[in-house]
Amino acid sequence: MAKKVQGVKCKVYIVESLDELDRKVLGGQRSATLNRSAETLDATSKDSAGGWKENEAGFKEWSVDTDGLLIQSDEAYDLLEERFNNSEKVGVIIELPNGKTYEGMSVITDFPIDLPYDDLVTYTAAFTGDGELAKVATAPTGE
């Protein structure tokens, strides 16, 4: 039976650029979603088989949505705040426990903080990809 991937072992890292080796894990992270989609191009013509529409894949795009607990001292969160305030791009890296990694530069498009009266302070962050989302094989984290 194939081994299942546990979401708790998947990490989101933030970097200033993808060439940087100093990955900053996003502290307090609870969950993340890697979204990938492609435009649909209509390729239907008068001689399409049986009157069915035909389509081709167009430009692709990706985004990441994540949330977590706000940690008082977190380098990755501080970098996000700085980049968001300065309208600068940031590198996002998602690492699975088997070493498979997805990485790309992004724009921070949403960055709220939730300050409830009766619970812990949390944040959410939404990243929209700027260019390619690369899939890279690295050594497993061993977790």
From TrEMBL:
It holds the Pfam family Phage_tail_2. Gene3D superfamilies: 4.10.410.40. It comes from the Bacteria. InterPro entries: Phgtail_TP901_1 (IPR011855). This is Phage tail tube protein. It comes from Halalkalibacter alkalisediminis.
